[in-house]
Design goal:
By secondary structure, the protein is of the alpha/beta class. It contains 8 helices and 35 strands. The strands form 9 sheets. It has an 8-stranded parallel barrel with strand order 23-24-25-26-27-30-32-33, surrounded by 5 helices. The longest helix is centred in the N-terminal third of the chain and has 26 residues. The structure holds (2S,3S,4S,5R)-3,4,5-trihydroxy-6-oxo-oxane-2-carboxylic acid (GCB).
Length: about 600
């Protein structure tokens, strides 16, 4: 081997090792609170190429192509054949689902390639991490023609270190986005919501110190006399310290990191507690290596005892509503702060102190605004209906989404419970699957409660019996029940009695009926606002007779798009169970629930 080629191969090895380390750190070390870090936004217009046959990825032998669209090739001269061109391809907004941006993409499921060019003033000794709020469902990310990583799962954020790939000028990022539904995904092929594809949440390029603060957590300690938490940095140094400050509590503490670049702390403090009535947030900052990361954090406790839920030691009734992540006025994925504020303000106007963010982790803004407005949160992963419970791979996908959800949102006081599933069938492999997920959730976050929405109840002599063995594993039992809609007449629901094998709090996590806004008739006429309101009236009677009932999140705040709802002139691909129409107009049932909540709030 010649001297120069040995140097080249050593350099290559070092680069490979470096890029391996940075890829590994992408996986292990989430950069917490991306929005609060120094960054360049990559939101805005991107070019897009539709690729229903994945021609930009596979060659004609169906092998991955060396020169796929990610190379961003340009014709060299007038005689050169290149069959795609991002520069002349149509524009699409990021964030945003593609379905509601172009008519031809309304029902599209498959691959779309996204491209954006950008400049950075690259600074030596900085690390650059590309952050994606969410891409539904699979993303493969390339920077300047090199693959930097891939991610599966449509509702959680992910990041890749791109320091080695970017340069000062003329960078391009290309993302292969694929929202094809497959049996072995989470969720699986069958759901009751629209499969919005695209880069649905914000994208940014974080500019971080060479060694940077990665993750942190802070919460009230279990005794309630201090704040407990952890910090970790991207790679360990010698005698490192992170300064944790909460000025309003006069906390300014240097925390010493261990050999792994991590530390935990428990600092005496007596904060005013965060609650729905007084959602007090403290400014908390973490300083490390020239960077100060600021967050706003509330401190509260939550626990279950017997059939009661206690927040800050006070027994609570959770006046809630279920919400899909859809734009307040019309359809399409919601993603902005304004969307979050509107949806959650509507929940407040309904008299809620609680929201169920169904059926997947919502964007980070929803949680931050819930913190600010004082809304307790049920947050969920899309283990929905019949995912493949017998598959280890599917389990791994679910566990990854659970981990990503908890990692991102663990600092939000609003979140009091993690939900691991919705309406899953009673069978052995499902119990093992969900049992393991619950174990994982408890290990990652011992400070919150675990729940799952269940729809399987046996019929008993008086009504319904909760006997799903999953109830044994959770802290709070979620029950989805559609008395007066999918079964029985509304008037029969008031007399329905519930019994449970389990001495645990129950949340009626779904209850409701469909109605087309503006359709009026006698209450016996289905799809009218009167019918829907009547279903609420009788279900409320039913719920008043459920001694272990500690909360309700009716289905649902607002009409939302679903391919399972084709009925012409009524549904037109909207699930009509909203208390608000797809445009945010109130239906009669809204007032029935609001009145019930006013009464509950006064108790
Ligand atoms: C359910 C599901 C929810 C559906 C709803 C309905 O039980 O959990 O995702 O949208 O019922 O409208 O049928």
């Amino acid at each position: 081997m010649k001297h120069s080629s040995r140097i080249t191969s050593i350099v290559t090895l070092v680069i490979m090792l470096l890029s391996f380390t940075s890829m590994a750190s992408n996986l292990d070390q989430y950069v917490q609170n991306a929005g609060a870090r120094q960054h360049i936004s990559l939101n805005g217009q991107w070019h897009r190429i539709l690729d229903p046959y994945e021609n930009g990825y596979y060659n004609h032998r169906y092998e991955p192509h060396e020169n796929g669209y990610f190379k961003n090739a340009k014709a060299k001269d007038k005689g050169d054949l290149v069959e795609y061109n991002f520069a002349t391809a149509p524009l699409i907004n990021v964030p945003g689902d593609w379905n509601t941006q172009e008519e031809q993409l309304f029902l599209y499921e498959g691959t779309v390639w996204y491209e954006k060019s950008f400049n950075v003033e690259k600074i030596t000794n900085k690390r650059y991490v590309m952050h994606f709020g969410a891409v539904n469902y699979k993303a493969i990310v390339y920077v300047n023609g090199t693959k930097v990583g891939e991610h599966e799962g449509g509702f959680t954020s992910f990041q890749f270190d791109v320091t080695e790939q970017i340069k000062d000028k003329d960078n391009f990022v290309i993302v292969k986005v694929d929202n094809r539904r497959e049996r072995d995904q989470v969720p699986t092929v069958n759901t009751d919501w629209w499969n919005y594809g695209g880069i649905t949440r914000s994208v940014s390029l974080l500019e971080l110190p060479e060694r940077y603060l990665a993750d942190y957590s802070v919460r009230l300690n279990d005794k309630g006399d201090g704040v407990i938490g952890m910090v970790s940095v991207s790679s360990p140094g010698k005698k490192d310290e992170v300064t944790v400050s909460i000025p309003e509590l006069k906390i300014n503490t240097n925390v010493k990191l261990d050999a792994k670049g991590m530390a935990s702390f428990d600092i005496k403090a007596n904060p005013n507690l965060w609650s729905p009535e007084a959602p007090k947030l403290y400014e908390v900052s973490f300083a490390f290596n020239g960077e100060t990361v600021k967050d706003k954090i509330g401190f509260r406790s939550v626990k279950v005892e017997g059939t009661e839920i206690f927040v800050n030691g006070k027994s609570m009734f959770l006046r809630g509503i279920s919400i899909h992540e859809e734009s307040p006025f019309g359809g399409g994925r919601a993603w902005s702060e304004a969307d979050a504020r509107t949806l959650l303000t509507w929940a407040k106007e309904l008299g809620c102190n609680f929201v169920r963010l169904a059926h997947y982790p919502h964007n980070e803004m929803m949680l931050k605004i819930a913190d600010e407005l004082g809304l307790l949160v049920w947050s969920e992963i899309p283990v929905y209906w019949t995912v493949m419970f017998d598959s280890k791979d599917v389990y791994a996908k679910a566990e990854k989404q659970l981990t990503e959800m908890i990692t991102r949102d663990k600092n939000r006081a609003a979140v009091i419970m993690w939900s691991v599933a919705n309406e899953t069938p009673v069978q052995d492999d499902r119990l093992v699957f969900l049992g393991n997920l619950i174990k994982k959730a408890r290990a990652l976050d011992p400070s919150r409660l675990i729940t799952a929405a269940m729809d399987t109840q046996s019929t008993s002599a008086n009504g319904k019996l909760i006997d799903d063995p999953l109830a044994k594993y959770v802290d709070i039992i979620g029950i989805n029940s559609y008395c007066g809609w999918y079964s029985a007449k509304p008037a029969d629901c008031g007399n329905l009695r519930w019994e449970s094998h389990y001495e645990k709090p129950i949340i009626m996590s779904e209850v409701g009926a469909g109605a087309l806004k503006g359709l009026h008739d006698k209450k016996e006429v289905i799809w009218t606002e009167e019918f829907q309101a009547d279903v609420y009236v009788h279900n409320i009677e039913m719920m008043e007779n459920m001694p272990s009932l500690r909360g309700v999140t009716p289905w649902i705040l607002k009409d939302f798009r679903s391919p399972r709802r084709p009925l012409d002139n009524v549904q037109d691909f909207w699930n009509r169970k909203g208390l608000l129409s797809e445009k945010g107009e109130r239906k009669l049932a809204w007032y029935v629930l609001r009145d019930f909540y006013q009464k509950k709030a006064a108790e």
